[in-house]
Design brief:
The protein has 151 residues and is mainly alpha-helical. The protein is built from five helices and no strands. α2 runs antiparallel to α3.
Length: 151
């Protein structure tokens, strides 16, 4: 049997530190530690950037397919509205003639377009952008300046 217990828990990576490992850690200079830290942070940022790029590519591919399908659905919906409008025009033409039935259908579509445009305008006026993000971004540069106190 081993001198140390071999638990497989997350906190048992190996043997506890002994005098040799603590002496070796004491011999490492502050510059070496800082160099290791900056290298590790650089590697971490690089790896996270690559992960973000890969996730973004997958998301963009999926969004592109979805956008294409929505575009196709929009074209199909346009044809449905076109043929329903023609059918309404022909149906109304039985009472008032083709000329007036075309005008009636066009006026109905003009009213629908006006209502949708006014609702869209109202929605765009409610867009506030990114006010909270804009405020927090203003605080970033002072955080890196040791002479100023950050909020």
């Amino acid at each position: 049997m081993s001198e140390f217990p071999t638990n497989t828990g997350a906190h048992r990576a190996g043997a506890p530190p002994n005098a040799e490992t603590t002496d070796a850690a004491a011999d490492v200079s502050l510059g070496d530690l800082f160099s290791d830290l900056t290298q590790n942070v650089s590697n971490l940022v690089r790896q996270e950037t690559e992960l973000a790029k890969a996730e973004l590519r997958a998301s963009a591919r999926s969004a592109g397919k979805g956008a294409g399908l929505y575009g196709g659905a929009g074209v199909a919906g346009h044809f449905v509205l076109l043929f329903l409008s023609i059918a309404a025009m022909v149906g109304i033409a039985n009472w008032v003639g083709y000329g007036w039935s075309a005008v009636i259908v066009a006026v109905v579509w003009a009213i629908v377009a006006a209502v949708m445009a006014s609702v869209a305008k109202k929605q765009f006026k409610e867009v506030k952008g990114l006010p909270q993000t804009a405020e927090t971004i203003k605080d970033i540069p002072p955080a890196f300046n040791p002479k100023e106190e950050t909020p």
